[in-house]
Amino acid sequence: MITIIDYGVGNLFSLQSSFKALNIETVVSGEPEVLRKAERLVLPGVGAFHDASEKLFSSDLADLVCQKAAEGTPLLGICLGMQMLFEKSYEYGEYKGLALLKGEVRPIAEAIPKDLKIPHIGWNKLLYPSDRARHPLFASLPENPYVYFVHSYHAVNCEDSLIASTEYGASLTAAVAKANVMGCQFHPEKSGDVGLSILRAFCTI
Amino acid sequence: MITKRIIPCLDVKDGRVVKGVNFLGLADVSSPVKLASFYSSCGADELVFYDITASSEGRNLFTDILTEVASTVFIPLTVGGGIRELSDFERVLKCGADKVSVNSGAIANPRLIEEAAKRYGDQCVVLSVDVKRVNGEFRVFAKGGREDTGIEAISWIRHGVDMGAGEIVLNSIDTDGVKKGFDLPMLKAVSDVVDVPVIASGGAGCIQDFIELFRALPKVDAGLAASIFHFGEVSIHDLKMQLTENGITARI
């Protein structure tokens, strides 16, 4: 059973459908008592960081997610949900994140050549760092599979949790993990069979 | 590096894919759900659905089908046709669309682009434009290409991007259906002036046309076509293999 955290950002239809296609039950909720009992948590998110940050911190959800993470509940942040795992973001200001992982979120524009389009949108390759073992999320994947990205900001200073990057004029953070806390900048629910395989792997971690 | 995208386009009327579908090996050749799964398994990078139904019953049927597609196909879905107000965005997004394409609705009310981009993000708003040469200029046509709006296309597209359109689908009426290649001069004129992804539409007849498109215009991000895929004249897998052999990045 997967519990998808509903904090009013983004469309959860595809995410729910992906788990359903894998025959994995989901519940979508923003109720503390439901989330407290969750076996596995997914933190989704589409939109602007400050809006999402406000929604998480103005309720008990931020504390609750941190508490569950500290207890060892597997947690997967997706896209903006992954960015929320870091200490802070510089999207239209400076806003705090959950600080479950070391690092911060900055505009891609600072990192890439000017002739590349922003957002970084489309299919790009996952590159695994050569200095560490492949993360279990990617266990059953081919060497450098394509996944689907849509983002204008990326996580930086997060080398200690980096498990995959992608190349777009510069190396951009594609996925991170530290113990039970994991995150994908790309959308596994829009990345075809590769994405489904990642979601399936999360359910066995 | 990011790949060039290959996008089949499905026109749906009263719940069925139109424009003639003639596949071997597919039992129900005009089922949008079956066709979408088929394309996804062949390596399509994204799918575009245009709702060309006029009636409201047909519209409900369309959203039912969209829901079913989004429950079985896990690649990005763009939906267009009959998008006139914000509630139309809401209607298709909650059924699993990732991007919404506006055309005549944005010509009638350009603020629609701005309002939608503000609410759902630029990446969600696709401006689709049907363009034809009239008296030496590129002219925007509305209502499925039947009505000359008198609007100059390049300035309209620029304006659309300024208001928040995150992607442009440029359909050349001059080359549409001719199958002699994409409209490279028109695509160049557009891709030179905007910094959002440009999707080429209209004119593809064979694999070579896609190779020429991406070679001649590296700033074009994707190629869209309908009947050549539906009729099996071009296989998406073969197309992507040949793109790769020609040094063009494609997802295989």
* Class of secondary structure makeup of chain B: alpha/beta
CATH domain topology of chain B: TIM Barrel
**How confident overall, as mean pLDDT of chain B?**
92
Number of domains of chain B: 1
Please state how the strands of the largest beta sheet of chain B are arranged side by side: 1-3-4-5-6-9-10-11
What's the CATH topology name of chain A?
Rossmann fold
Q: What is the gyration radius of chain B calculated from CA atoms?
A: 17 Å
Explain what you see.
The complex is a heterodimer of chains A (205) and B (252). Chain A has helices at residues 13-21, 32-36, 49-57, 61-71, 80-83, 192-202; strands spanning 2-5, 26-29, 41-43, 75-78, 88-89, 95-96, 104-107, 120-125, 146-151, 153-156, 162-167, 171-178, 181-184. With 205 residues, chain A is an alpha/beta fold. Chain A has a single domain (2-202), classed as Class I glutamine amidotransferase (GATase) domain (Rossmann fold, 3-Layer(aba) Sandwich), CATH 3.40.50.880. In chain A, the strands form three sheets. In chain A, strands 2-1-3-4-13-12-11 form a seven-stranded mixed β-sheet, with helices on both faces. A four-stranded mixed β-sheet of chain A has the order 6-5-7-10, with helices on one face. In chain A, strands 8-9 form a two-stranded antiparallel ribbon. In chain A, a hairpin with a 3-residue loop joins β11 and β12. Chain A is globular. The model of chain A has no long low-confidence stretch (mean pLDDT 94). By secondary structure, chain B is of the alpha/beta class. Helices cover 37% and strands 24% of the residues of chain B. Chain B is built from ten helices and eleven strands. In chain B, α2 links the parallel β3 and β4 (77-80). The radius of gyration of chain B is 17 Å and the shape is globular. The A-B interface holds A 11, 13-14, 17-18, 20-21, 46-48, 117-125, 146, 148-150, 167-168, 189-193, 195-196 and B 1-3, 5, 40, 45, 70-72, 74-76, 93-96, 98, 121-123, 166-167, 195-197, 221, 251.
